[in-house]
Every structure is written in C-alpha cells, then in structure tokens.
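Take our chain:
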Amino acid sequence: PGEQVGEVTTAAAMLTGLKTGTPVIAGGGDGQCAGTGTNVFVKGRAYVNIGTACVSGSAAHAYADAQAFRTMTALAEDGYIFETCLRSGTFLVNWFVENLFNIDPAKHPGIFKTLEAEAALVPPGANGILVMPHWSGSMTPHWDAATRGVILGLSASHHRGEVYRALLEGIALEQAMMTNLAAAASGQAITHYVAIGGGARSGLWCQILADAAARDVKRLDTLEASALGAAIAAAKGAGWFKSIPEAAAAMAGKPVKTFRPRTKQSSRYRELLAIYMGLYPAVRDVSTRLFEFAARGRP
C-alpha cells in the first residue's frame, strides 16, 4: 500500500477523463482503508464503523491470529488490522422499524428521532429485554452461519421504546464483547473507539457503546473514512508524506464529540454483558436444530 503500481494510460484516460500519466497507487480493502482514514495507528485506538454491518479494527505491527478476529493486512507499509465484524448494524435498525414496527421511514422521516427519544427514557437493560443481533448469522467471534437473532425477556408490560433500546444495546454489547476478546487475544490494549458510519450520528447509541464497552467513543468529522484512507495511501505514494501513518496523522478526521463511560451505567452494563455472553452458548444447539428444521421445509 502506498506504492506506485503504474500510471493512467492514454486509453484509460479517454475512458475515464483522468489525465494521462496520473500515478496509480496501491490501496487496500474497504475496511482497512477505513482504519487508515481514522488514523487507527494511534496507540490504544480501534475504529468502529457503525454502518450496514458493525465493523471494528485495531492495528498492530506483530502478527496474531485468533477466533475473536480476522487478521487483515493494514493499509500501511507494514502491520496488520485485527478486525471484528457483526453483520447486522444499521441494517437491523431499519429492519426493526420497517418489519416489526411496520413504519416506512420514507413516509415518516422523523421516526428514528422519535424512537431514540422513547429509548432514551428507558434505563440500561431495557427493563429486562435482551437482544442477540445475529439476524445474519455470526462472523467473529462465533463463526456460526446457523445462529439467528434472539429477543429475550419480552412481557406484556414492555413497549416500543424498550424494544428499540434493547436493539441498540444488543449491538453495543456484541461489539463490547468482541473488542474485549480481540484485545485479550492479540495483547493489544484498546482504550477508545473512533466512531464512523451512519449509526455514529446517534448520540444515544454512541453513549450506550461507551457505557457498555467502558471505553471512550470519539465521533469523527470524517464522512467517508474508506475513501479518505485510499487518499492517504495516494498522498504517501505521491511523495507528500514519508509514510502512511504520517499521512494519516495529518489527514484523518478530528473528533467532534467524545462520549465517556459513566460510572453507574457502566456498572449496570458490566452485569448485563456477563448475562449477554451466556446467551449464545445457551441457545446455540436450539438455533442449529431450528435452522436445519427450517431448511428441510423449504421447497
């Protein structure tokens, strides 16, 4: 990454409108570009992209391998990204609103603010509702295609705001669990997140993540971290900087708001995380049997 691999040919220039001879610089995968775009090289930092999926990663020079993460080449001169991935991020939020709450956001554009306001009135733990957000199976850390989503603890006294909060909490708890496992397995201490993606615009969600993970969450002003990471590699390749980390330090977005874990709420989430970590082992066999049962019934 950051090395010139060629230049725009005359034929390519005619097709694209780019200038003939423009250097072509090696980049990287979208997740690794996002890491560089958030300057993941800062000690103790992990990026968390709360997008359609919820993808997080931390950087290291030494290679490590564990079930808790997948090891990717960093978008830098050397090193690796230890990446966790929950396949249901904002996709699941939209699914809840459209399919469970039966609300079309296009016709009701204020629905997310309304739901956040309702959820903000609910205490940590959503009054006994726990969501395991495996609607699309599990990548890290379980690597289980048969696992499915769980909404546990529902009673007739619960309402929409509690369910919505439990959803945000479920994704935050899953991320906190994955980060803890990845940090332990890699030996890389993670002290804070930098948050990007559409879900990072939610102040409530960022605060829940900070409380659940007991780590600061810094919301960046970066709109497209992956594109910025590719530009950082290009800047180094063009000779503007001596290294990609140097370019990242100069070009990455700056924090516009920091969400800090609160003592009382973090204590509650620490208890809830212990409960949450027992949920997947408790339902794994039932989920597999149900998955196989449903598969046999399909035409």
About this structure: The first strand starts at residue 4 and ends at 7. The chain has a mean pLDDT of 96. Residues 50 and 197 are 5 Å apart (CA to CA).
